Amino acid sequence: MLFEKILGVFGFGLAVFIFSYHYNRRFLDWLRFQSLGTRDYIVEKLNMMFIEIEPQKILIGLSSLSFGLGSIVFLSFLPKLFPGIPFGILMTIVGWKAPKPIVDWMYHRRVKRFVLQMVDALSLMSNGLKSGLSVVQSLSLVAQEMPNPIKQEFNLILSENKLGVSLEDAFLNLSKRIQSDDVEMFVTSINILKETGGNLAETFDTIVETIRERVKIENKIDALTTQGFYQGVFVMAIPPILALVFYETDPEFMKPLFTTVIGWGVIMVILLLETLGFFVIMKVIKIEV
Known about the structure:
With 289 residues, the chain is mostly helical. The protein has helices spanning 2-22, 24-48, 55-77, 81-97, 99-130, 135-145, 150-162, 167-177, 181-196, 200-249, 251-259, 261-285.
């Protein structure tokens, strides 16, 4: 029995080695993209949120989370190799892929908070312009009175301007860091009106009203999509809940599901379908405003 397990592990490793050797260039290019590409993406997003972490630490964290989680799952299934190897690989992939959507969620939450703060910030800038302040002075007023993240972003605009970057370019850099239609509208309007001349205070008031109406619509849509999300989560929770009920009422009936190769195959298919269903639900309930 032990010899067969060792032979199986050796055969699996040999097959992986032969496959990797045959496709070594493609594999190395893919591995480099998955490692350094993911690392650079996370570092870029964190820098846009004023979170500074060394790229090497990000790569170490990704490797520890993915291979560490996969190793724990694999070791927990020993001496059974069949569920241990596929589930270990699956958890390794999940551990590697999970940080990217988490960072994206953090970034979008920050963008949403920034857009909500723009209502008060633009009203403050409008009042400052009406009282005779310049655009730079109005930005400084907002940076003093408002909390993060708008304070960080406006302070960066002012710092870039002091270092010789034109105000137009500094605002364009803002639109690259905060990717939002409302921010793009704000940056475009302020850059055009500074060149052509116009009433910036009235323009800011108009932008404020536009943002308020957009936020109202987004809140209504969020209320509807949240209902659909929880309905989907409830439907996805039915299979594991039923499995738990059956296991508690009749353990012998459910035992083959966890002790046979076919049973573990069924579990993997269920997890795959559950994951696919989750992404389909998220795609259906996502509405762009």
